[in-house]
Design brief:
Helices cover 22% and strands 28% of the residues. By secondary structure, it is of the alpha+beta class. The chain has one domain: Roll (Thiol Ester Dehydrase, Chain A). Strands 1-2-3-5-6-7-4 form a seven-stranded antiparallel β-sheet, with helices on one face. Strand 5 (111-120) and strand 6 form a beta hairpin. Helix 2 crosses helix 3. The longest helix is centred in the middle third of the chain and has 20 residues, at 69-88. The chain is globular, with a radius of gyration of 16 Å. It starts with 17 loop residues before the first strand and ends in a 10-residue tail after the last helix.
Length: 183
Amino acid sequence: MVHEDGFCGESGEETEQRECLGEWPGHCFGCSPKNPLGLQLRFRRAAQGCVARCSVPDRLCGFDGLVHGGIIATLLDEAAAWAVIAHLGRLGLTREMTTRYFRPVPTNTEILLKGSINSHDGHNAIVRSAIHAVDGTLLAESESSWAFAKLSRIASVAGVEEKIVQQFLDDCRGSGVEGSVGP
């Protein structure tokens, strides 16, 4: 059964399994495999957004055994960013994010991250993100607004050549962005 958000069946499994192939060339705390202290999240494209499964280590706790609230917000922000990347083929900057914490998120326990585009135009997007336990229980959610940035500006700020940032987006598009031809 697909829920109204288009992400999961009753078992909590993603409805689509295509991994977003691009790897951010910098040291992003959320997704870069080059950051040994980061979360190293890998997202998969889902019918209405993106999903990732992960487990947050104890070193990122608030109270022992519980993920720090700032890390929870980071997970939600990262899911939103990858929804923008996977579905719109754009890079964005978070303008505003409202976060709601429903239940504690345990450390060292698999969780499911979801991000979906609610609306967008040529300059902005509104994105919903959520963290679920593997049994489907909603632990936290957010709604965020995003401004799309020029590639040249992102490259400049990140200290990365623009062609490398473009290659990252091309690699992500190759994994199934709307309107593209991919594997």
